[in-house]
Amino acid sequence: MCPPVDGTPANGSNGHANANGENGAPGNHPGYSAIQSSHNPHPHHKSPYQPVGDFLSNVSRFKIIESTLREGEQFANAYFDLDAKIKIAKALDEFGVDYIELTSPAASEQSRRDCEAICKLGLKAKILTHVRCHLEDAKIAVETGVDGLDVVIGTSSYLREHSHGKDMTYIKNTALEVIEFVKSKGKEIRFSSEDSFRSDLVDLLSIYSAVDKIGVNRVGIADTVGCASPRQVYDLVRTLRGVVSCDIETHFHNDTGCAIANAYCALEAGATHIDTSVLGIGERNGITPLGGLMARMLVADRDYVLSKYNLKKLKEVEELVADYVEVNVPFNNYITGFCAFTHKAGIHAKAILNNPSTYEIINPADFGLTRYVHFASRLTGWNAIKSRADQLGLNMTDAQYKDCTAKVKALADVRKITLDDTDAIIRAYHHNLHNEKEVPLLEGLTAEEKKKYIAAEQELSSEKEKRQLEETADVQAEVPANKKTKTVTVS
Ligand SMILES: [Zn+2]
User: Fold this and answer.
1) Whole-model pTM?
2) Of 266, 279, 478, 487, which sits most exposed with the smallest number of CB within 10 A?
């Protein structure tokens, strides 16, 4: 079993094989610099074939609008009282998000009071609130002390017919009225359509162009139903980039699993702001998760992400929110899932122990986490067992590590073994090397398991003998090592 990745430095007791020296923090391996791309052409290594930077892309200068306290409030399990909202807002601020978006103060009296209280915290992040494109809602919002308003209205034919029932002329006129009002109060204003990918392109571009002309700060594209693919996102954002001069905010739901990829493509196409929530919580199965976006962006531009965001806070922020909404962090979560930095296959373990960037594109130390080399399985290799024995303070020769590993693998073939079992085997093996009286490698095997193990061991020793014979024969025949053909052992 893999223990959780818990941010504590590797040591002999928690099963974390420390693959890299000092507390899981290796130096800068080439594998941990951002991948080279047209967005990040690595200008330090100039060559005549250097790609030209992509000037449309904002992959290296994006901003985060963190919407756990707005979109996240729409998550099925979410109920945030003021105390919870303040704790989450402070944690997000320490993480370094650019904006924190709050539920509309027009939603309820308590929502309005919460909004005012969070504005008074004096956070570094700008505070936004998300309101319908109604003058009345905007009037309530500007009085709460927020830095800006995110206004939204449905523009797709589905929403125009079945939700608010307004036509495009009405939508445009209301938008212009609300934007002029919010600007007159000295607040930032974003205008967004809802369900943008099922809206008519001509309608969208014409309304965005109109609001851009009167000085809106951002326009927003929202994949409200999670239907868009990365390529559709790229096309729409790129087209919009050619029409408006203001910033472009994007909001992606994850119904079809594209929320992170869509956010990334939006930035490539010239979007400037990405909406996220912690663990992706939101309406239905949510939106682009903050942690997943960080993983993606760290690989795209490590320097930018590290200079701006306090990644070591990620696990804490996620656990805080997970507690409030009573969910577990998924096992396969980006960065913080319990096996996100677990290496199991023997060949992976060996390479990881030599140089972690062989099988890791993200350095767990960037997030204050440690990797874990899984050694309690039949897939283990002797490098992993050696590393574990080192942690347990048991020294052996390489031949002994290999022999011990063969026994671990043989036992793992007989039954599923745990970390503790593996430690016990290593200890017993080491004990038997130095003591007259042998102890069993693993206590508590059933009669059936013992029988299977004895058979497995016999198989092992006959293989070993065969190998030794071969080696002796090689030496005697003086066959160059690279020319000899090994006997294939039938097991
Ligand atoms: Zn949403």
Assistant:
1) 0.79
2) 478
